[in-house]
Q: What sequence folds into this?
């Protein structure tokens, strides 16, 4: 049998991505964590800690809402990845993926289809939070180009985090195991400079934030909103995405190999 | 067995069932303890410097936020009860309970009281962790007030989520249960004192009755325990409990229709 080229597999990737998006919007238990919880946390952080901008060491910003938008976007991409991982694990539990494994398509199509869906949720999250920011008075200093940078980086970040969720889903094949990482997303985020400037964080969180790739990603998302499009910040963002993505892809490949070997 | 003793037996049996779940699947209790603990540690690391703002009556953000996590732990226990009930409805187990010769208020009492008992686990976990990390010791009176109010608030949360479970009859309602409790607890003076809050949150927190509960739990950790801080929390809990129990009982009356 002749092996299909990558281009010939694109329709399958598209179909799986569409299925992933439809699943997310049909089930409130998938969609709510992605948009609802980060939105609520944004509201609480802004109203509860909004006067933090009065602290002497706080950087010059348009407002605390402007500062928090990147954190909420990043949080939503991480939760989209968890939801994507849960859905992928459910596909293993229900046998859908067994049928895909028996189909004449490469294994990677199954994962990339899901990640494409997660990346689209990253776009949805970025647009959602940029819109909320604009409605409630934030200013996107980078203008439309800055907004596009945020949307693109958010999509890439979602796909990269999705790789970690996929690795866990493939390895465990159990939705409850992937769902259990939900609090972990918060921990990793708290240990980055997503919610507060690193120089104002307390130890040991401040040191952890200095080396956390999420701090780089959030910098890439935040810079276009606060100060305008900057090549350096974009590179930092892409660097953070690359670190997470490489780890995710490697772990997913290893997990898939182990699963196929066990089968 | 009939009469009050029989009803008490039913309440006891339901409470034992809930506690058995905890003993047989201890892993299921971990998120309830872990989530408020992580929230407490994370917020302290991130927002710890907020106490430099004028208006804070303590320089320990950990002491300020610990009571919020304690109340959160109680609400998680309450919300989990609603989700578990929705599962029991989905698999048909609850229909068998409804067919049993037990008054529905007794069924509700068993479910709600088991939530309060289960809330002692996250409450204890958060307290031990917070105090070990250097939060202010609230004194015996402060500790008793905090645990008592948290215990009672778990009943409020459980009654609310049981009402929701009976209305929607599906675990898909879980985000609504969790989000509503999340909002109730955090749209208060959770992050900062009233005078430090800004914008709409300042207004919402002023009129959100749960603010009184959070302040009541917090008092011993940031100062002295006083009756003037305690009675509003008790009054709010009595009113909320009456309302939520009425909501849950209404759902129970229509259950099985």
A:
């Amino acid at each position: 049998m002749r092996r299909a080229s990558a281009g010939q597999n694109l329709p399958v990737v598209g179909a799986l991505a569409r299925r992933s998006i439809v699943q997310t919007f049909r089930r409130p238990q998938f969609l709510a964590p992605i948009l609802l919880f980060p939105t609520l946390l944004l509201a609480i952080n802004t109203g509860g800690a909004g006067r933090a901008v009065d602290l002497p060491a706080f950087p010059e910003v348009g407002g605390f809402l402007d500062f928090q938008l990147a954190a909420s976007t990043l949080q939503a991409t991480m939760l989209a990845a968890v939801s994507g991982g849960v859905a992928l694990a459910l596909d293993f539990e229900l046998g859908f993926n067994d049928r895909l494994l028996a189909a004449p398509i490469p294994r990677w199509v199954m994962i990339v289809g899901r990640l494409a869906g997660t990346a689209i949720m990253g776009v949805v999250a970025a647009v959602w939070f940029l819109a909320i920011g604009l409605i409630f008075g934030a200013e996107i200093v980078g203008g439309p180009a800055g907004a596009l940078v945020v949307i693109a980086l958010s999509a890439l970040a979602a796909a990269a985090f999705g790789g970690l969720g996929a690795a866990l889903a493939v390895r465990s094949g159990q939705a409850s195991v992937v769902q259990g990482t939900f609090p972990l997303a918060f921990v990793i985020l708290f240990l980055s400079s997503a919610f507060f400037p690193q120089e104002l964080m307390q130890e040991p969180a401040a040191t952890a934030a200095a080396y956390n790739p999420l701090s780089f990603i959030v910098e890439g998302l935040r810079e276009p909103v606060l100060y305008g499009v900057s090549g350096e910040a974009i590179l930092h963002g892409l660097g953070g995405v690359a670190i997470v993505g490489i780890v995710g892809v490697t772990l997913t490949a290893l997990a898939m190999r182990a699963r196929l070997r066990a089968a | 067995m009939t009469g009050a003793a029989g009803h008490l037996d039913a309440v006891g049996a339901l409470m034992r069932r809930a506690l058995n779940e905890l003993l047989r699947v201890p892993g299921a209790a971990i998120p309830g303890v872990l989530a408020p603990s992580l929230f407490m540690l994370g917020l302290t690391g991130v927002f710890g410097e907020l106490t430099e703002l004028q208006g804070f009556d303590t320089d320990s953000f950990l002491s300020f936020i610990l009571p919020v996590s304690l109340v959160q732990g109680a609400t998680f226990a309450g919300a989990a009860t609603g989700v578990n009930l929705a599962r029991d409805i989905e698999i048909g187990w609850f229909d068998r309970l409804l067919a049993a010769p037990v008054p529905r208020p007794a069924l509700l009492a068993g479910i709600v009281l088991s939530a309060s008992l289960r809330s002692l686990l996250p409450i204890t976990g958060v307290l031990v962790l917070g105090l070990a990390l250097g939060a202010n010791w609230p004194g015996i009176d402060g500790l008793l007030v905090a645990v008592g109010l948290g215990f009672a608030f778990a009943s409020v949360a459980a009654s609310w989520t049981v009402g929701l479970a009976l209305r929607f009859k599906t675990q898909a309602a879980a985000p609504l249960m969790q989000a509503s409790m999340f909002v109730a607890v955090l749209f208060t003076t959770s992050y900062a004192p009233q005078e430090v809050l800004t914008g709409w949150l300042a207004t919402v927190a002023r009129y959100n009755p749960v603010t009184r509960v959070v302040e009541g739990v917090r008092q011993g950790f940031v100062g002295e325990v006083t009756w003037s801080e305690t009675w509003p929390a008790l009054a709010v809990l009595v009113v909320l409990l009456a309302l939520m129990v009425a909501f849950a009982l209404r759902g129970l009356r229509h259950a099985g229709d």
Observations:
- DSSP finds ten helices and no strands in chain B.
